[in-house]
Structure formats: C-alpha cells, structure tokens
Amino acid sequence: MKHPNILYFFKDRENCNPFSIFNFQFSILSPMKKLLIYITTALTLMSCNDFLDTESLDNLPADKPYSSPEEVFGGLTSVYQMLADQGTYGYSLWNNFECGTDLLAINRSYTLTGLRIYIFNNSDADLAKTWIALYKGIGNANYFLDQMIVTDSTACGGHRAKEAYIGEAKALRAIYYLNLISIWGDVPFRTEASYNLNNTQMPRTPQADILEQLVLDLQYAAEKCYSYKELMSPGRISQTAAQALLARTYMYLCGYPNNQDKWQEMYNAAQAVETSGIHRLNQNGYEDVFIKLCSDKYDMAYNENILEVEFYGNNMGGYMMAGNLGASIGIQQTSTTAKGDSLGYAYAFLDGTKRLNELYGGRTSTDVRRNWNIATYIYTNDLKAYHTKEDGNAAKWRREYETVFPKGKNNTPNNFPLVRYAEVLLMLAEASHELGNGQALGYLNQVRERSRATTFSEGELSDSQLKQEIRDERARELCYECLRRADLRRWGKNVYFETIRSLRGYYTSENPQGRAAYNIADKHLYYPIPEVETSVNKAITQNPGW
After folding, report:
1. Angstrom distance (rounded) from CA 422 to CA 443
2. Coil, strand, or helix at residue 374?
C-alpha cells in the first residue's frame, strides 16, 4: 500500500509552484520530513488575508470533517510537528530537564540561575515554553481525533488508514503526557478538543490514572498502526513503536509513586517488539547509531531506532525545521574558517559528568560508549585538542557527520532517537529481574557486548548487583536521551535525590558541573506548575514546596 506523503501536495498556488526550488535531495527525504517542509512552506506563503480569513481559535468548527487524504495527513502532521518544537525535543527537554541529573551538566561558569542548576521559580520562561509546547501537541492530537470522528474512511484512504492515523495520534498524545508526568507529576488530563479558550479550568489528574488511559491508547496504536515494515521509516509511529512506548508506560506504573505490579505487562509489551524480528542492535557499532542520526540516514539494516524525532536542514531558505543537537550539545568548535564551517559550529554548553565516566570504568574502558558520549577533545584552530579530564563535552551528536551545507551556526538537521531497541532490551532485562524469570542477564549482556563492554557470566552477580547493573546500564546506553530523570524518580525518592547529589563527590560547589547537585532541594522532586497555567486555571493546585 502506498501511504500518503508530501508528493500528494505538489500543487501550484496561483501558477507559482513553491516546490520548484527543491533539488534531488528533497525527493529522497522521508515522507514525514517532506510533509513538515510542505506545511512550513505553506505557512510562509500565506498572505495577510489568508490569516485574517482564518476562523478564530475560540470558535473552531467542532464537526467539520476532513475531505481528502491530504487534509487528513496534514492534520496528523500537526500532531507530529510539536515533537520537534524548541520546547520539546528541539531543545528544551534535553537542554533544561535532562541536564541537571547525574549524567549531564552545564559547563559554563557564568550560569548562575536557571532550570539546569535548580535556581528558578514558576515564572521561568523555559519552564513555560515546555509546558505550552507539550499541551499544544496534546491539543493538536485532540483536535485531530475529534475531526476523525466525523471524517469518513474514504477521505482517509480507507478504513485501515483511518484506524492507523487515529492510532498514531493517540500514541503521540501519550508521548506528550509521558513527558509532562516526568517533569510535573500530576497534571490536567485533557483528552477532548477545546473550541472555546474560556474552557481553561481543570484540576490535576493523578498520574496513575493518566498512565492507565495511556495504556489503552497505546494498546489501540499497537494493534491499528501500520507495521514498521509497511512504513519503512522511524519517523512515524509504527506498531512496534507503540509496543515499546506501552512497555515504557507500564515501567512508569511500576515505579514510584505509582508502585503497581505491572512487570509482566511491561515484559509482554517489550517482548512483542523483540519477537517481531524487525529490530536489532546496530552491529556496525554504537557510534554508527548516532552517525546516521547526524548524517540524515536511516538504519534500514538493523532498524535499531524504532522512533525518531525528525529535523531537517539549517533553517535557511524558509524551511524552519532544524534543531539544535550537535550545537548546544556536542563537541566545542568555534572556528569560522572554511574548515571550521565544514566541521560545524558548536557551543558545547553541556558536559557528560565525572560520574558517568566512572560508570563506564574511566577513560581507559573498553566500552566504546565512554569516549563517544564523553569527548576526549575539543576543536581549537580547526584541530582536535585532546585533554585528560574525566569529564568532557556531551558528544553523542557530532556535527562533522552532517551532510547539509552550509552548516548553520545555531541550527542542525540531526535527529533525536525517541525509542531505540537498546532501551527495549533493557526494559526486558529490568522486567525479567523483577519477575525472576532468569532472562535478565542475557538481555543485559546483549547491550554490553555490542559496545565491547565486559559481559557478566552466570552467577557472577548477586541479585542486588544485577539490579544495580541494569539500572547503571540504562545510564551508560541511554544518557542524554531524556529518560534519566524519570528513571531516577521511579526508582524512589531517595534514589532520585541521592544520585543527583552524588555529584558533590566529584565537584565542588564552585564547579558549574556541580551546581545542580548543591542546589537541588526536596521541592525539586517535581517542577512547579508554570505561572502561565496557574494564572488562568484556578482549579489547579501547585506542587509541594512551590
């Protein structure tokens, strides 16, 4: 079956074809990237009258069906689009919320306030940006799902397509809610489109109740979405992506503060991904996973990246679809010579910590992830300048592998791995350990062996040691991928605070990399509900300590 893509949208606008400037590179992009480019282009070309003619947001049509596959797919893409927003995976989720854990730290001495070092309040602009972006994604999903109720299957391209698109929207909404819960805990649970901006009053829903609904939504998606083989792209929600997200949702239900016994369900969902036979660890090496993310290539041999957040270009030429991976987080390179431009400018504000270095076994470890995730050099005068520090730039995304030229100073095309098969294996390891089914060590060793880390033999680890190794392996494998804060918290309040504060053993309070560890307080278990919400939603309560 041919799935909808941007090619359906190639239509002249008043005898002017905006796509005539596209080169061959555009024709080989993924359908989702193509569609996002189309939407950006369409918005750019809209005249003032186009905007003036648009219906007011407080009076959106509640029962206007989509009339064609193009309209349906365009509506679905608006739900995907918020994954790449600056408030989500485009910048803030990793820069402001993953940073400040025990693995990732700011390295600038002038950083004296902000989310990354726990000196902020509920009026913080970055805090509001992420709240707004996540709820905008949810709002777009709710509106799309509402419209699909009154949209005939023929307008979707058939009944199968309609069910698949609904599944994708439900899974995307789940991603946005999983992030909200990870940062704020209990939040307003909005599952219906709002056609009146005055309908803002909504209390918080316990996160366990939200997660249980997300289970139902992801079960639907796992059944109704297209398979990964049908899509042949990690840029959209497939059945196995939904199953992996379902396993992650069960994992959160198992942990603090929910503490439900859902280990078997978590195992079953993750095992469904394993037994599909579609996904494997990239045997070209750990590094190759991220080289491909930076060089705009899909791994079609192993399909390790089950779901990616897609970025495109350099924000030149009117297509505002670039991200920031490799620039703010990457290896420092500030030369503006021709060679420097070819390497790509990188501020490199963030470091992998000394604690992460220790988890790998230090600089001399055989584990290739150590020197890939913690750089052993920076660029000086266009050349690599090696250092002997135990920490270093968080180097998972490297601009030297980018294929888009010219390379923008602040904008990069590098994708973000939202779900990887390595995480699936580690969820299987964790669930297996809790279930006592004897499979945990095998799953753990699969991940370690790929990275040339020492594997463990049967009986080498005690039960408590195996449990800790599985937890530590998530840090080694998945660092910087916006999972660490939720991991630490679900393992318990004490684990959360003690692990972040453990950086005090590696840094003084004067070191920028140590400031988060010295500043974190009990109220930072969850972040404050932003003022942009509390000022209009009088039904909402604030998190403790704020």
Report:
1. 9
2. strand
What is the C-alpha separation between 401 and 395, in angstroms, rounded? Answer: 12
**Alpha carbons 224 and 271: distance in angstroms, whole number:** 18
211: Cβ contacts below 8 Å, ≥ 6 apart: 181, 249, 252, 253, 258
Contacts of 13 (CB under 8 A, 6+ apart): 45
Q: Hey, what amino acid is at 496?
A: Y
User: What are the b/e assignments for 127-141, b being 16+ CB within 10 Å?
Assistant: bbbbbbbbbbbbbbb
Amino acid at 432: S
Query: What b/e sequence results for 293-331 when a residue is b if at least 16 CB atoms lie within 10 Å of its CB, and e otherwise?
Result: bbbbebbeebbbbbbbbbbbbbbeeebbbbbbbbbbbbb
102 in Cβ contact with 353 (< 8 Å): yes
Instruction: Say how many Å lie between the first and final Cα of the chain, rounded.
Output: 53
Model confidence pLDDT, tens digit, residues 443-471: 999 999 999 999 999 999 999 999 999 99
Task: Write down the residue that tokens 């968080």 correspond to.
Answer: 394
114: left (phi over 0), alpha (psi -120 to 50) or beta: left
Tens-digit pLDDT profile for residues 380-426 = 999 999 999 999 999 999 999 999 999 989 999 999 999 999 999 99
SS3 category, 505: helix
Rounded to two decimals, what is the model's pTM? 0.91
